[in-house]
Amino acid sequence: MTSPTPPEGGAAERSRRPLRRDDGRLVRGRRSRARIRAAAGELFREVGFDAATLRAIGARAGMGASSIYRHVRSKEELLVFDLRDRQEEAWQRFRREDDKRAPTRERVRKFLEAQHALLAEDPDLTTIALRATTHPGARVARQVLALHDRTIGLLFEVLQQGKMRRDLDREVDAMAAARAIFHVTTSARIPWANGLVDAEGCRISIESAVDVLFRGLLAQPRPTHNGV
Amino acid sequence: MTSPTPPEGGAAERSRRPLRRDDGRLVRGRRSRARIRAAAGELFREVGFDAATLRAIGARAGMGASSIYRHVRSKEELLVFDLRDRQEEAWQRFRREDDKRAPTRERVRKFLEAQHALLAEDPDLTTIALRATTHPGARVARQVLALHDRTIGLLFEVLQQGKMRRDLDREVDAMAAARAIFHVTTSARIPWANGLVDAEGCRISIESAVDVLFRGLLAQPRPTHNGV
DNA sequence: TGCACTATGCGATCCTGTTCGCATGACGAG
DNA sequence: CTCGTCATGCGAACAGGATCGCATAGTGCA
Question: Which residue among B187, B221, B225 sits closest to A186, beta carbon to beta carbon?
């Protein structure tokens, strides 16, 4: 049922191109995988990530807890799947609605809004994704970092186009700027995930930080550029 | 032996001012606490945070694993103690060596260097501190976030002084800028902690991001400030 | 039909952070 | 001396993520 194009990163499934023809078992496996992901998603939303026991997820998916590991390498991966899907969706929506001729600041704002809408739905997405990056060597960490890279890449693209169009200062390091913007959004979400500020406060915090950044990015007549 | 001024946040110790005079037991308790922290520190450095079992820490400290919880509220707290101590030290060193008349960019650079030297010693410090913030509601999370706030406050102070002295543009939002700088440093350390870049690469990444930021902070003759 | 192969599932088990109830022993009050 | 109080310590137990060895059952091949 899922779109056939992406390899759909199941654990065993991705390991090797199927040497034998599509097995009846493989069909069952795909169905199980879908049930697991559905059950996990429901439970995560109902009781939160930490309170959702693997045994409970398994029960809802109609199987034992240990069987889940036939399809998933860790509990966190279950949420990262979700995150990846939503992220993909947010990117595509941005690309659809993006007006390449709009001012760069405006394009970035739109992108961050999409990003914010994505993550503000569920603090767990932020929390667990971040937590995943604190387990170096784990597969999940790499998956999340890959998402980071793609986000930075997208921002870089926007900034680079801004430079081409003389919308941004030509002296500016677009990659550093893209990273800075991304880092700000990531880290600014931490207080929100901890309930210290609400979603709107978080958004504003990000916006004002990006404002500060853009003060230095926008092309303007300036005498020199790197004065101490 | 530790300086008497800070309340030395042991779990039970801090809970209430001792109603009865200093007990022999309290002395024993303090000694145990010291042994635990020492043992934990050693083991963390030897095998890393995750591989250091509480049972192993307890054994090295000469007590059972469960007894540790008389002095500490969670394993993570053991490392946050460390972090807090080192952080305090780094702040003090910065304050000692800081020349308030130096250019603001330079002062910030010095501060970030101290900060980097502090954290580059041990990836676990970054990793676990970050992980702690992904457990909302946990005591450790609040402790780490308090450290964040103090760091941001210090940066704010430096930037504010820069504004006063006309070193920085008066229109700039110093708090937003301080937050932005801090967020960049925090988040930029994630790829390093995951082994994707080395310590030097991480430092450079931070520096260039801050460079971009300062392009907009430095006071310069500019026509308007909030052009689209 | 029999055999090798392998994806899926299961229950038992492991590991480790954390909690619980109880024991010990130092202290002050009566 | 005795009793209540309380900080400390202990071992058992719990919880939940992860691993292991075994069973089941499709599939292709001879």
Answer: B187
